[in-house]
Specification:
Length: 258
Amino acid sequence: MKKFLLSLSIFQLWICTGFGQDIGVFQALAPSAGCELGQSETVTVQVFNYGNAFTGSFDVSYRLNGGPIVTETINMPFSFLQNSTYTYTFLTNANLSTFGTHAFDFFTTLAGDVNNFNDSVVGYMVDSDQLSEGGLITTPETTVCYGSNSGLLTLTSQIGNVLNWGFSLNGGVSWTNIATSSLNLTFSNLVNETFYRVNVKNGLCPAINSNPIQLSLDQPTVGGFLSGSDTVCFGMNSGILELASYTGDIIEWEYSVD
């Protein structure tokens, strides 16, 4: 008996919906997700007439992030035909300047609406992304030994995801991509002065490159040649030894008696 009454009620609701006034928000058209959305974003919805043709006025509302409800009245300038849509842009814009995901709820209010279950769109999400920031590349040493070197490059303070690294052997005139999305990059055995940079993209915002870092090279150390007298008088001698053809800085001199 209970099942019969429930079925009868649903049938009666369907009959009412088909022949009464029934208007609801069908979908949200704006705003859309974007990069650094502003304090005054346009809000637009599409309203659907599920019931009989309607002439008159009704309210349409939205709530942003669970905050105050914004309600405006639509005065239909023509007969709102059954199974047709009407696009409405709110006069009150939405503040989406805070970065992150924003949640909208939309609904209509019509006196005598026979089905309130189709009045609303709940949980319409809009992302506002922060501008991409390339960040800073660091490494313990920016000058390394020619041909015999290794090290780790680390990206910090970036905003967004790493798309790839890149390097240049001609001072940044042209770049070659390195297919990695890691925050770290190793290098080894460089024989050319090399610039590195990182390409970073945050959400829907344009990608941007970090400032490049330059790795300079010191030529390999060469000990050079000593010149001077190699035979002197026992116990009574003096002279000058001279170093030539060396590469690097003199750290100290050494001697051996055995």
